[in-house]
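Long-time lurker, first post. I've been practising inverse folding by hand and with some scripts of my own, and I keep getting stuck on stretches where the structure tokens seem ambiguous. Below is the full token string for one chain I'm working on. Before anyone asks, I'm not after the true native sequence, just a reasonable design that respects the backbone. If someone could post their per-position residues I'd love to compare against what I wrote down in my notebook.
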């Protein structure tokens, strides 16, 4: 059994003030520096174009990055967010709409799978002047992997097929655009409901291959899929009348499957588990949803394959009506749940997280 650290952070003020808070966090936790600082400055033309792209589609983030660089004492051109955002991870997630929930509410369940060495393990409450308040886990300090904002809008992410990036093992970007962590955060900070979120995402240049589930307290939900610069939306435009939405790590729409027909076995199994659970005639309750991530793969969604970069690092069950969330750092089989409302703080800044590797089996990575 290995022990790692999870974090809770509260960010507020102007974008630059929040950036300085981020920078001080990195100074106090030097283990974060390799993830956020480049060895060499980005070439000037690329840096200029990236700053311009973020100014247009993610207003405020450049001020935050510069504030962090100032607090660290680092040239902003060496901030890794600029390199990684202009172009990781496995996840399972679903939205359960009022017609399927036993109490008539909207819930979103997700777990996030990767390696502790490649993630922040940091839940943030973010309250920046001029932007909607939100709570979610950070990626590369400034991005978000999921979250819920003050209006109850919830966004969750999973990679769609091979993740896009510039490191070995990732798929080279086919188009120029934003990474998922920038898209998720921008939607949380600028959109009030599912319709606004879909419109905003349609307008963004996106390089990331991703499945996004978006839901709001009214029960409106959408699944957005992007692959190699192509984008498809199901749900918000009436294309689906199912009372739930599910996604894991492979393309789900015919137009995307034509581009990438291959699927990893573990993604197909996790997607089938979600659909089998939600496809039953019975209404589903909160505890039944949590049970899906409290059960180990292949019978549930939680995976302990940490050495192969595929272990559960956090699970969240969002209650959109109550603006509340149940959060577990690490695997729910070995770590406790915490409950907080959007805007509230956890009673700690750091928490010990138990991580235990278990081999996933020879068929886990089988390509179908």
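-- Answer (accepted) --
I ran through it position by position. Result:
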């Amino acid at each position: 059994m290995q022990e790692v650290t999870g974090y809770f952070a509260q960010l507020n003020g102007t974008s630059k003030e929040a950036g300085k808070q981020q920078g001080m966090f990195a100074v106090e936790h030097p283990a974060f520096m390799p993830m956020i600082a480049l060895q060499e400055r980005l070439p000037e033309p690329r840096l200029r174009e990236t700053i311009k792209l973020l100014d247009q589609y993610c207003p405020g983030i450049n001020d935050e990055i510069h504030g962090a660089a100032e607090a660290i004492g680092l040239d902003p051109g060496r901030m890794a967010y600029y390199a990684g955002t202009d172009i990781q991870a496995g996840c399972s997630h679903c939205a359960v709409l009022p017609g399927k929930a036993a109490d008539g509410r909207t819930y979103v369940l997700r777990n996030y799978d990767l390696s502790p060495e490649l993630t922040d393990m940091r839940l943030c409450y973010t309250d920046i002047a001029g932007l909607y308040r939100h709570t979610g886990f950070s990626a590369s300090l400034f991005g978000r992997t999921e979250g819920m904002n003050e209006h109850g809008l919830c966004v969750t992410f999973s990679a769609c097929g091979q993740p896009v990036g510039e490191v070995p093992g990732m798929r080279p970007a086919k188009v120029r655009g934003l990474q998922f962590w920038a898209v998720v955060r921008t939607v949380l900070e600028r959109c009030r409901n599912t319709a606004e979120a879909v419109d905003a995402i349609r307008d963004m240049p996106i390089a990331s291959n991703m499945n996004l589930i978006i839901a709001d307290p009214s029960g409106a939900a959408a699944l957005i899929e992007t692959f190699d610069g192509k984008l498809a939306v199901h749900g918000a435009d009436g294309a689906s009348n199912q009372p739930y939405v599910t996604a894991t790590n492979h393309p789900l729409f015919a137009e995307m499957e034509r581009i990438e027909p291959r699927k990893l076995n573990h993604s197909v199994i996790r997607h089938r588990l979600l659909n089998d659970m939600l496809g039953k005639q019975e209404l589903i309750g909160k505890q039944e949803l949590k049970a899906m991530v409290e059960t180990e793969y292949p019978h549930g969604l939680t995976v302990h394959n940490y050495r192969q970069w595929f272990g559960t690092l956090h699970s969240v069950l969002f209650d959109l009506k109550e603006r509340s969330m149940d959060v577990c750092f690490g695997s729910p089989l070995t770590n406790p749940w915490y409950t907080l409302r959007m805007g509230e703080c956890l009673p700690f800044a750091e928490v010990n997280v138990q991580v235990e590797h278990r081999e996933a089996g020879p068929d886990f990575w089988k390509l179908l």
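A couple of notes from the structure itself: The first helix runs from residue 15 to 28. The chain is about 25% helix and 30% strand. Happy to go over any region you disagree with.
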